[in-house]
Structure formats: C-alpha cells, structure tokens
Specification:
The chain has one domain: Haem-degrading domain (Beta-Lactamase), CATH 3.30.450. It contains 6 helices and 5 strands, in the order αβαββαααββα. It is α+β, with helices and mostly antiparallel strands. The protein is globular. The chain has a 5-stranded mixed sheet.
Length: 166
Amino acid sequence: MSTSPAPSADALEELAAQEARLVLPRFTYEDAWTLGTVLAELARERRAPVAIDVRRGAQQLFHCALPGSSADNDAWIDRKRRVVERYGVSSLLVGTRFRVKGTTFEESSRLDPDRFAAHGGSFPIAVAGVGVVGAVTVSGLPQVEDHALVVLGLERLLESYGSQGA
C-alpha cells in the first residue's frame, strides 16, 4: 500500500472531466500521425526521455522513442494501454479510483501486474457518437507528467480540428 495520502474525490472528478472534454469528432490515420507528432514535439521541447504510442483498436498507428527512453518504456506502454482497453478510461483514473478507496490497483484489481499497470500515461481515444476507439500512451516520466503530456497532446489535436474546420 502507498504511504502517500489517498487522492481526493476532487482528483477523480478532474480526471473524469478531462475525459469528457477530450472527445474527438473523428480519428483517422492522419489524426493519429498529428497526435503522435505533436506529442513528440512537446516531448523534444522538454527533452523528455519518453516513448509514445498511438493505437486505433489493435493497430499501432504511431510509435516514437526519444533519446533516453528504453525498451522498458515500451513494456510500460503495453501495460498501461491494456488498462485503458479493459476499463475504457485513462490508466491514471483507474489507479486513482483504487487509491481513493485506500488500496492499490496491484492489490485489488485481480489482474496480472506483469500485463496491466494503472499508472498515468495512457488515455482513451474517444470519438463523439462512437466511444473509445483506441489509446494514446506516453511512458518515461513520472506518471502524472506522462498523463499531463498526453492530455496536452489531445488538447492540441482538438485545437487543430477547429483550425481545419473538423
């Protein structure tokens, strides 16, 4: 069990609000490329040693590994993405739900921690009127920073739709 204080219900509300706000009008191959390259540019600006993965369903549409990242980041990507695929919400939201209850995902989910990690950095790609169609994942920073980078990337993608006339 974690020695840090349990997050509050406010943290859950904030994470849920992000997911409600970051619903895309569409998600094409070009959109996956845009999202991945935006994330790569943001990470490069920060000199962040991350790997980035964008998927629609089972298909990997974008992958990038920046200097300082390793194959371990790819393994973390897979574990975090599986949480999004199973629960349909961000990996940070899933982990936070367990922590708010005073436990951890690893202790209470009954899922194999070698295959699933409810650590921040993977976020559902949701399309309006369709639902979750994929996941975008970053690994290499502390989990809250991985999550924040993904959120910023999705915000930038949504902004680009406005300039394109989605």
